[in-house]
Amino acid sequence: MRFWQSVFVSIKLPPAEVARAALVVIGVGFASYLLWQVQEVLFLLVLAILLATAIEPLVKQLRRGPFTRGSGVLAVYTLIIVAIGLPAYVAIPNVVSQAAAFMTALPDRLEQLRPYAESLKPQTMATLASGVLDNATSLLQKPQQPAQDQIVQAGTTAAHTLFSFVTVFVLAFYWLVERASIKRVVLRTVPLRHARGVNTVWMEVEDKLGGWVRGQLILMLAIGAAATLGYVLLGLPNPALLGVVAGLCEIIPMVGPFLAFAPAVLVALATVDGTRALMVVAYALVIQQIESNVLVPRIMGSTVGISPLTVMLGILIGGALAGLPGAFLAVPIAGALQVILAHTLRSEDPSQSEEHMDPTDRAEHEGATTASEQVRAA
Predict the structure, then answer these.
(1) How far is CA 213 from CA 134, 219, 358, in A?
(2) Which residues touch 227 (CB under 8 Å, ≥6 apart)?
């Protein structure tokens, strides 16, 4: 007969290790708390890095001439201000007046949409659409703040927005000027055998993020201009405002192209007729086909190349953690993490995987190039 005997194993941990582990946990928690408190600063920093990576190629081109890195950045800033300021000076008064007129007429336009909502089939869709209209109407009918409070609030918001805008450009300037020093500090903190891989990942992340920002801006401009022109030809009210909305919606991943033309369809239903709304839908489908089959492949290329599942998860996680700013930064941050993960798991593209080949194998592919020359080329 076999008797089972319980064996108790006691593990003795030195007090110093317990104290060290407790300090590490406390330090991580405190650091997380600080990062959460300064999330707005981190948001501005990420925006600055995106801006810096977007204009980095142009700054490099200017450095081949009489410009230093700092003066090249200032020259690019001047071009950006001129390129944005002149069209804004011409268009903003028109957009503001159209926005004011649109908001004034919005309650009546919502009521004009009610017959369309009530005629939807099945009845569940009609009830849902009517409920949305009721909620929107109740929000518009809420008592407004006194005029003086509105002026103070508008001034505070404008000052905060202007300060954030200037801060992004200042941080981007210092990031571009100090970028080489920052990279050297980072590379010195990693083991020597990993320095080249970290440098490769750094450059690839910058290339992808910069390409994404440049491509996204071009797409927004193209869609906004095409939408405005189409709305003018179709005779819709407030075409400039609707075009600006379409261009801004383009930055929203995946669902942006569908949201871009939804306000125009609703305006056409409320102010013109159903036939004009169908024409807007047809025009939107044509623009989306051109965007997905012509513009995106040519402009974006493989700048980020994130799977739709990763995009959706990134948007949901970013929105849950930081609201709209987190959702906005979900795609570039997910793209950077995907690049880092691909290099860590050695699952990048074949052209990129050569960066991790053994020196002997790399010599067979690249010829008799020395390792030092390869490091300098990186």
Answers:
(1) 39, 10, 34
(2) 242, 243, 246, 247, 260, 261, 264, 287
Q: Report how far residue 88's alpha carbon sits from residue 80's, in angstroms, rounded to the nearest whole number.
A: 12
Distance of alpha carbon 92 from the chain centroid: 23
Written as six digits, the tokens of 43 are: 């948001």
Q: CA 327, CA 318: separation in Å to the nearest integer?
A: 5
- Give 143's DSSP letter: P
Q: How many residues does the chain have?
A: 378
Domain residue extents for the chain: 39-132+159-356
Residue 359: its pLDDT value, please? 47
What does pLDDT average to in each consecutive run of 10 residues of the chain (378 residues)? 56 72 84 79 86 87 82 87 80 76 74 75 76 72 59 78 88 88 84 82 84 84 89 85 85 75 81 79 88 76 61 75 73 79 68 47 42 45
Show the tokens assigned to 158. 């404008």
110 Cβ contact partners less than 8 Å away, ≥ 6 residues apart: 133, 136, 137, 140, 270
Element (H, E) at 305: none
Q: Which two tokens stand for residue 52?
A: 């810096």
Answer yes or no: are the C-beta atoms of 335 and 304 closer than 8 Å.
yes
Residue 53 near residue 213, CB atoms below 8 Å = yes
Q: Is 259 exposed, middle or buried (0-12, 13-18, 19+ CB in 10 A)?
A: middle
